[in-house]
Amino acid sequence: MKLTTIAAIYFLFWFLSLFLVLPFGVRTSEEAGEELVPGQVESAPAHFNVWRTVWRTSLLAAAFFALFYLNYTYEWVTVHSFDRFYSPPESTLK
């Protein structure tokens, strides 16, 4: 596998992981016991730590990529694994 392919697949896993990680550890101002700033939505996070989110996202993306690469190398799940669920259509040219 080329380095550019590895980078592209990791990039895709990273953004998937970002959306999975974002809701965890978020506390609203009400939960944190702080006052709302005028114009602030009640559901907005009180404190958002970008670097903690980037770190968690990177770790999760690395785990997803490791599983992907191991499957690519050892071929645990392939296209042929799903053959039992597929029945080809009857030919109409008989």
Description:
With 94 residues, the protein is mainly α. The protein has one domain (3-80). The protein has three helices and no strands. It has helices spanning 3-21, 29-32, 50-74. Helix 1 (3-21) packs across helix 3. The chain is elongated. The chain starts with a helix and ends in a 20-residue tail after the last helix.
What descriptive keywords fit this protein?
94 residues
Detail the topology: elements first, then pairings.
Blueprint: H1 3-21, H2 29-32, H3 50-74
Helix pairs in contact: 1-3
What's a concise summary of this model?
This protein is mostly helical and 94 residues long. The protein has helices spanning 3-21, 29-32, 50-74.
Q: Number of DSSP strands?
A: 0
Percentage of residues in DSSP E strands: under 5%
Helicity, as a percent range = 40-55%
CA gyration radius, whole angstroms: 22 Å
| Integer average pLDDT | 91
Overall structural domain count:
1
Count of helices?
3
Distance between the first and last residues' Cα: 43 Å
